[in-house]
Amino acid sequence: MSGKQINNHKGFMLSIGLKQKIVLTITGVILLLGLMIAVFVNINQTNALSSVLQNEGVTITRNLAINAVEPILTDDLVGIQRLINEVRKLEENVFYIYIIDVDGYVLVHTFNKGVPASLAEINVLEQGGNYSAKLLNTEYGYIRDIAVPVDSLGVIHVGISENNIRRQVFNTTWTLILMTFVVMIFGVLLASYIAAWELRPLDHLTKGADEIARGNLEYRIEVNTKDEIGILAEEFNKMAQDLNTSRAELIKWNEELEKRVIERTKELATSDEKISAIADSALDGIHVIDKDGIVKYWNKASEKLFGYTKQEAIGKKIHALIAPERFLDIWQGAIQSKAVEVIVVKKDGTEFPAELSLSKLGIQGGWDSVGMIRDITERKKAEEERKNLWQQFLHSQKMDSIGRLTGKIAHDFNNLLTSIVGFSYLALELLPVDSPATANVKRVCSVGEKATRLIDQLLSFSRTRVLEMEVTNLNNIINEIRDILEQMTGEDVKIELKTESDIKNIKIDPAQIEQVLFNLAINARQAMPEGGWLTISISNVEFGEQIINAYPGTKPGTYVKLSVQDTGVGIPEEVQGKIFEPFFTTKEKGEGTGLGLSTVFGIVKQHNGYINVRSELNKGTAFNIYFPATGEELAENIHDKPTPKAPGTETVLVVEDDSATRKLFTDILKLNGYNALEADCSEDALIIFEREGAAIDLLLVDVVMSEMNGWELYETIKKKAPDIKVIFTSGYVDNPIIHNVILKNDLPFIKKPFTPDLLISELRDVLDKNK
Amino acid sequence: MTYKRIIAASLIIFSLLSGCKKEEAEVIILEVEETIPPVPPASDDELRIAVSAIISPKKTFIYYKEMLDYISKKMGMPVKLVQRDTYAEVNELVKQEKIHAAFVCTGAYIDGKDEFGMKLLVAPKAYGEPYYYSYIIVPADSDAGSFEDLRGMRFAFTDPMSNSGKLAPTYMLAKMGETPSTFFSKYIFTYSHDKSIEAVAQKLVDGAAVDSLIWDYLNATSPKFTSKTKIIFKSPPFGIPPVVVSKGLDPKTEADLKKLFLDMHLDPDCKKILDKLHIDSFIEIDDDAYDSSREMRSWVNERQTDK
User: Fold this and answer.
1) Which residue is closest to B83 within chain A, CA to CA?
2) Does ipTM surpass 0.85 in this model?
3) Which residues in chain A have Cβ-Cβ distances shorter than 8 Å to B39?
4) A104 neighbourhood in chain B, CB within 8 Å
5) Which of A622, A672, B196, B205 is most deeply buried (CB count within 10 A of its CB)?
6) Domain spanning B47-130+240-286: which CATH class is it, in words?
7) CATH code for the structural domain at B132-238
8) Domain range holding A224?
9) Buried b (16+ CB within 10 A) or exposed e, A573-612
10) A550 and A485 fall within a common domain
11) Which residue among B13, B20, B26 sits closest to A43, beta carbon to beta carbon?
């Protein structure tokens, strides 16, 4: 049965009335019962009668078998034939009899023509079996073939017809079916009558339901019975009553609700005006767009910000107004995140940065977005400035770090060079003039000095070189070295000097400033391989609040500006930040040390000045250096060179932890007639001092030593011998003791490396002072 | 939904009720041209050997089947066992040469010899001698102690042609000057010795004359009936029932057959068959061995003819 048929069937059962259902059920039950009985009787009676008939058949067959033995053995076939004919005639259910011998040949039979071949092999007797029965369905009806052995001589088959018993069963079955139908008709009539009588109150119910469905809630059902239907009718009437009451209440409620809606609508309208007023008073642009981006609200601040009036904006797409298509993604992103920065467009087409925050506003049947836009032009500018300052700060920090690193390396080298240079000079003095080694030792001295200068440059960058400061005027220095500069730059480069007469004095190490000028000149010449102008200008400048803010770390005050400007190839923007780093060079390998500009930078910083570079490709570069001006007057005669002094006989206590340097000191002293005592640390020095006491004229002491430093040693000894002389020495010129104590108090100091002449000369000076 | 359930439940009950299945029938047609063939006529190559109903045909068939199968095997041709209800019928078959050989009773032999020259082949030797006897038996609990005690009682003869079952008792009656009709109240022919023993055992008769070979054999193998009888008289010995051949049997077959019988006890397989039949061996026998029976017959015939 297909699904559709099932549905139809179900539909049929649902569509028919209760009366019909009852009648159908009773009919069905009777019919089913009747048919079940008929089928049961048919099958069981057939089986029972068949069984009886079979037993009867087996008995007949066995009797025949017993009686057939002797006639078969004595070839008396006529006798057997007569016997089976007789039995066939007497037993009405016996349809046929035949005997076959052990070889399968027929001995006797009751058939007209012969035993049909179709019977052969149809009911085969098992070896040693008593009998075998088999039901056959033939054109003469059902026949049960019974086979019984005739001793070992053959088998006798008797066919028992079941036609009689089957006819009997058939008649019984049909009688039952007929009776079933009679009972069924009677049942249908009775069921119809009962159903009609019992279900009459249901008709009333149906009518009542119809009336209520039509809205007649006043209708009541007539209740006659007290059975389930009667109870149902009463409940139904109660329900109608309740419905009636509920409907009246509903109507009342509805009216009440309508009234409230009108009131709330009025309130909302007032509230809308208020909100609108608040939004108009806001400084930020506020707008409302629907999900398609159509502007629904536009406040006063938006009018000011974008130039569109409320009337112009409302009803247009927001993207057509202020948000260019290219920023569409950002606008969409704004809905998810809190606030985003966007570029917005004014009515006149100008763009400005703004901060946008969008929030969803759930409304009936969808959503709107409320957008708030704030002009952040000023804020962005400030941020930009802050960013620049931060980068400059980072740069200066980096330069500082590099400086410290190179300073450390340079000082280590200085210590080494002290021995190399010192011993080389000593060796030179001790060697006979005509010694073949003289030339070589001289070369060592020369290379040592070159190395010393290289270290000096590094120290200059690291701002740790010991400065010999004096008050001077830049004009004087320029005038002094102008010739040298011209020589250095060559003929193709013309030097132009722009200066003023009232240039303020500055306190500088002139040699260092000369170095700055030389380095910048060399740089300029290399920038102008085909010639050009080198302009050196000097001017007074005042650092005000603005400059202080633009250049962090600068201090307000008067400065002397030294500007060295060329008309060369210029410095690419991307490398401008790196030119002051040591060993940075754009030149071929071997052409420059990469220390030129970093030295300049170090010197300027050491003089508490500032340097910056302005460069344009193929137009030229300008280095601007600012030195703080000083109110002091020019010093005089400070450039006296130390003159070699005569040897002495005084006793000098050398305190030096580096054994090579200590040996150098004592060798030089002894060579020049001095009496040298030596100690490798402050503690030893104190012991020697205790022992020798007043015999010691001078302390030659290394400043930087572990445990007790040179200054502390001097202080300790000075307490016991106030007149004792001292010369400090160190390769670490950035040591705070050297800067803050020794140099500040103008105490004698020899920087390593040094030449023997310098040491002896300084020693003499100190010993002779205040004599 | 409810209706569906009701229908489903009904169907289940229905199928349970009809759980008792109808028997299946094989469909065949009876009105067919082809038929199962009847027994074909006897073949010429067949050696037909008759056994007289010394015992009932059913028992004969059981006892002699094995021996005939052995003969068939040795002779290399099929052997058919032919049986008839009476000795006369077997003699008739020998006379008409419808059979080749026959186990006949002593009485039948002397009649056949006289009538158409029935030819002796061999004779069995049983219990060590080529003789047998006629036993007069009565029910075990019978008061009769001698043949004379049976006067006026019911008596069973076997075959009218039987030596031990008819001729011998008739001879004894004749000696006593009696005939069966005068001596017995009633007498019947059972046509075989086992039936006579059964008749006495079941007291259908009060006495019977039977072949000693049969009684001894049955008493040894299945004493169901013999145990209910007792022997009250044993006759003098008679020539044992022989194996005969028809006059027309070709000499070679006759010679082969004779040799086969004489050698049977030498073949271990066949010895077993002989043992079952309580036969020691087959021996050559002279016609003289049956003279005692002949005399008895002629004496009786004379007497009875006189009567």
Assistant:
1) A74
2) no
3) 101, 103, 105-107
4) 36
5) B196
6) alpha beta
7) 3.40.190.10
8) 199-272
9) eeeeeebbbbeebeeeeeebebbbbbbbbbbbbbbebbbe
10) yes
11) B20
